[in-house]
Design a protein that fits this description.
CATH architecture: Up-down Bundle
CATH topology: Butyryl-CoA Dehydrogenase, subunit A, domain 3
Oligomer: single chain
Radius of gyration: 14 Å
Strand content: under 5%
Helix content: over 70%
Number of strands: 0
Number of domains: 1
Shape: elongated
Number of helices: 3
Distance between the termini: 16 Å
Largest sheet: none
Length: about 70
């Protein structure tokens, strides 16, 4: 469970960071529905919520570490 929580936390946070930078790179086009980056941005945001928020994943990890 700890490794899965660690993987989900890291992947979802990294995905948000990368896609956020891509949206910034594309400027206003990054938010327009005609471009695929807008869809990727919406999908990436869901990963931090789906099957447990990032805060829940950190709580699980800290419990297994004894913190």
């Amino acid at each position: 469970v700890k490794k899965v929580s660690m993987a989900k936390y890291w992947i979802s946070e990294m995905l948000n960071r990368v896609v956020g930078q891509c949206v910034q790179f594309h400027g206003g086009y990054g938010y327009m529905e005609e471009y695929p980056i807008a869809r990727l941005f919406r999908d990436a945001r869901v990963h931090t919520i789906f099957a447990g928020t990032s805060e829940i994943m950190l709580l699980i990890i800290s419990r297994y570490m004894g913190l």
